[in-house]
Amino acid sequence: LKLLGIGDDCVGCRLKGLAFYSPSTMSKISGETLKTAVNKILSDAKELEAKKTAKGKKYFTQTVELQIGLKNYDPQKDKRFSGQVKLPNITKVNFSVCVLGDVQHVEEAQKNGIDAMDVEALKKLNKNKKLVKKLAKKYDAFLASESIIRQIPRLLGPGLNKAGKFPTLLTHSESMVNKVHEIRCTVKFQLKKVLCMAVPVGNVNQTPEQISQNVNIAINFLVSLLKKNWQNIKVLYVKSTQSVAHRIF
Length: 249
Prior knowledge:
The chain has 249 residues and is an alpha/beta fold. 38% of the residues lie in helices and 20% in strands. Helix 2 crosses helix 10.
């Protein structure tokens, strides 16, 4: 499994008992092609960082993204899939999380330097669509206490759900820090109205091996969600925020 870039902590592995690594879903990505693409992305990122540093300009850590084009799929007729998988390595460096919590969770969040909002703060948004949309754009993901998550539709309306950011449940028996780390390693695939999508699979501060491992697991999991597996994959690219796209399939 390690040769395939499959980690022990892969959510898909645990939940599906390795079902998505059947012969029909096994990766068809050339290891050499992926390695070349990732190395080019990382070398270009270092070159760009050196140029900006020399000019005294600010440089930000670029996210590495997997871009997918599908085929033989009709979003209007075929069942739209949705699924998420935990990758072994974090994706975005500045992946922001907000806790919508009860008193205990808000206090815990503050102690750990994690943004949090209590019920009163959520009530102040008054279900205002613009304010809820602004909140959804501010953070990459949300966690919510059990007592709060039930109230989200009543407090905020459908805004977070429409943005694909409905909160993940956070219980008091879980470590908040570990839960945040888990979310930072998790990517979600969801078919909407178009046959293309993109998910973060790493950043340019990581090693080629870490990025490649994330890419392989993400692709294998996506293929497991598709009706005809690899027959539904038209094209796959990897790129960083400021690089050109490199085709790997």
